[in-house]
Amino acid sequence: MSARDQFLTLMKQDKIIFRIICLWLACHVIPVPTVYGAPAQSTILAVDVILSEDKKEYRSVYASLSEYLQSSSGNNIRLLVYVGDDYVSQHSRSAAKADLLVTIGTRAAKIAARTREATPVLSVFIPKDNFEKIWHDSDRSISAIVIDQPINRFVELLAIILDKGDKVGVFSPRENSQSELESSLKRSGLALQVEHVDASLTAKNITRLINNSDIILVLPDKSVISPQRSKWLLYMAYREQKPVIAFSSSYVKSGALAAIYTTPETIGKLTALRILEIKESPLSVSEAVALAQTITFPDDFSINTNKQVVTNLGIKLPEDETLKKEIFRNIWQDSHK
After folding, report:
1. Centroid of chain to Cα 144
2. Domain check: are 128 and 200 in the same one?
3. Average pLDDT, stretch 88-117?
């Protein structure tokens, strides 16, 4: 094994050391033209961005990352943005080739995967399961900033709401394991009730899970529950006085008790920080992406509760910001036991 390969292997084993080295080099302004024979990155980092669709949430992610990069990097990063399949038709005619491809949303990731190019990919604003399904057999350098929340945030919220022994119901594809969620709930004295969904969510699935659970937790997977089915779920759950916890503020507006989520603007900022980290790395773009944590959960979140539903269900909850601080505090205490 060459010295360069030994170095890369060491860095993969300890990403914390890698990040510290990169930050130290950046802070001390040490020129690093090559690393163990790796070519230095050009002065300008060319980044292509694909939006899944021309919709507000995707535009918000892009606007946030673009604004943050503009204020932080000067003119050292070039952004070109495409919407959906326009990337395939327009990119093939473009003379300028990107160093990095950023995909915003699931559809954008699918478009990038179909191109079979070698450009490193940063896939953001995408459910973790979708990212893994799209890229599981790819040999490209890839990493992701997903929209999923770490399970412990939901579990801490559920523990505040529920009594010991209560059942938390989730819909899940039959092939997906919910062992992490089940273990986390068990440590908090709660039980998991899984309703397996084979093709699409049916009224029978919804009725059965509501009847067998004390609360419903909706996870971000559109292959399990579509926006249309979510409305039916919220109606039936509210009729049976069963609260629903979800992953987006739109659920709360439609009748869910509460949601834990990360805003598109926050995802955009996290994406910009990752791009800057890649650019400042002494490694090539491909190596920097490969050595980054493959899947990153958002380090911040928002919580939103539906005050009318809280009142009608007779549940006592503090204000949203107080609830968020309590969840953070409980997570910190659990991690330091």
Report:
1. 7
2. no
3. 86
